[in-house]
Amino acid sequence: MNSKKIILVTGAAGFIGYHLCEALLKEGHMVLGLDNINDYYDVNLKYARLQQLGVERETAEVFNAISSSTKHGSQMQFVRMHLEDREALPKLFIEFEFDMVCNMAAQPGVRYSLENPEAYIDSNITGFLNVLECCRHHNVKRLVYASSSSIYGNSDAVPFIETANVDKPISLYAATKKSNELMAHTYSHLYGIETIGLRFFTVYGPWGRPDMAMFLFTDAIINKKAIKVFNNGDLSRDFTYIDDIVKGVLSTLLEDTNDRSICKIYNIGNSSPVQLMNFIKSIENNLGVAAKKEMLPMQAGDVHQTWADVSKLKNDYNYKPNTSVNQGVEAFIDWYKTYYKIK
After folding, report:
1. Nearest CA among 184, 302, 308 for reference residue 245
2. Is the pLDDT of residue 1 over 60?
3. Which of 182, 222, 271, 332 shows the smallest number of beta carbons within 10 Å?
4. Span 31-39, average pLDDT
5. Active site residues
């Protein structure tokens, strides 16, 4: 699929969605970015990402108004919209006639789902249903959407493989992602829409989310505050650098494979888990500062370990993550210091 496509990217002001828009624009595709720009974390960071795409804040702030990029013209457009808006979203599908949709929008975060469960149902369930319905009624052939490694729960069977039973989520966030996979399967079966779900594993890198470990640890260490280390550091995560993630997402969105099934699920991770204490050590080394550590018990909804078996994605799309944690940490810290003007 080398021809230029018209692609809807939801969650475009988010971490992965922003990077995906950048990559699609470089390949010459026409992108409409959508985001509701909620205040789950600092909206200034979301607007700063959009600014990188040439989307000005004063136009991006207005709901349901489409604006063009000052850098890319009509090749990159943006609309602030709630995914669950059943009147406004179908109008976009009529106006733009999307070739494909990449749904990166979601209410993220495991711990926050304990405090504000309604937000997860509105965005991750109702919003995703709205996307599926629009794809169904407006002839979108391929939908790639964000699932999550959190759906594996506290499974001891590692590495996690796509065929594992995932019927025991331990957070509402994970339950909504499992629901997305079931909903996508149903729409593929009933309406012939090709759906590809990507189970992301702890994504980090420049322009990353402030609620994620990489950002929290760096911010705390630079500001001479203690970092919170859960389960006394006895955790491991399959930390995956953003560039490796984006390459994988682009492949599933734009390429065809020999696998003719129309409903697919893939793990997308680094397939090389890192102990939390080693991850912290890498940040300390890059900053040249030792962290003050506040050792805390396991948090409700958290899992002990994540580890992706990515052989299916490698086999179907030649996916090859190749960024080491040290390389990724260094790139994040360089960005962080530039963004916050730290010498």
Report:
1. 308
2. no
3. 182
4. 97
5. 173
